[in-house]
Known about the structure:
19% of the residues lie in helices and 23% in strands. Residues 112-119 have low confidence and may be disordered. The protein is of the alpha/beta class. It starts with a strand and ends in a 12-residue tail after the last helix.
Amino acid sequence: MILIPVEHDEKTIAQGFRKADKFVFLDPKSGIVIQENHFKTDKSEVFFQNFEKYAVDRLYVKGMGYKTYLKLEALGIKVFLISLVEYYTHIDPNELIQLTPDNAKEYCTMGHHNRKEAE
């Protein structure tokens, strides 16, 4: 199953992942399901366990933090970055960038991993 975070309008791809208003679940067998992100306030461990229940194996996202990527990778979820597309219905799988342990630090620009320690 593919998961895509979207804004409240249910079409626009959200800029981030964890705080997205809604999620689109794409399944070749059951079709498209859109639901509110009721996981927003869950603690990190519970937040990620929710996607195991839904058998999510791929995530299409515009941005995320490196630590979030590491948690998804540990769950076996493949993460793909979307660029230049506003609506999830316009995603071309051939234009996605798959995150890997080798490139994730370069592409994961959200979150706290790039902040310098206060001196």
